[in-house]
Amino acid sequence: MPVFIAKEGREAVLREALAELEFASRKDVGCLEYTVFSDDHTPGTFVLFEGWARREDLQAHNEKDYVKGFVKGVESLLAAPFSVTPITPLTGASS
User: Fold this and answer.
1) Among 1, 27, 46, 92, which residue carries the largest CB count within 10 Å?
2) Are 35 and 22 in contact (CB under 8 A)?
3) Residues 40 and 89: beta-carbon distance below 8 Å
């Protein structure tokens, strides 16, 4: 679950880049969910919720040229490097 925080004045450009990433990523093999949300309490903060059928699908997605291009391209738009928190649903998780 990546979180992106835009530099002041760069929010709209980051929003557009994330929308393009969302559109392209939804076409990738194994993509179950790929939705970007804006944080209602913190303007300029965006959270990406993504789900993949298999870990290998996520790894393949992260190796795509358009994903690498996105990561490099948004560096100048971010107030800090984006963070990624891996999450697992409680249902189906082993105890």
Assistant:
1) 46
2) yes
3) no
For 64, which DSSP code? Answer: S
- Say what the pLDDT of residue 87 is: 82
CATH numbers and ranges of domains, the chain: 2-84 (3.30.70.100)
Provide the token pair at 21: 């990433």
Q: What is the pTM of this model?
A: 0.88
- DSSP, residue by residue, 23-59: HHHTTSTTEEEEEEEE-SSSTTEEEEEEEESSHHHHH
Beta-carbon neighbour count of residue 70 at 10 Å?
A: 16
Per-residue pLDDT at 94: 52
Residue 21 contacts residue 67 (beta carbons within 8 Å)? yes
Three-state SS at 71: helix
Residues 51, 19, 70, 85, Cα dihedral to 10°: -40
Q: Which two tokens stand for residue 95?
A: 């105890």
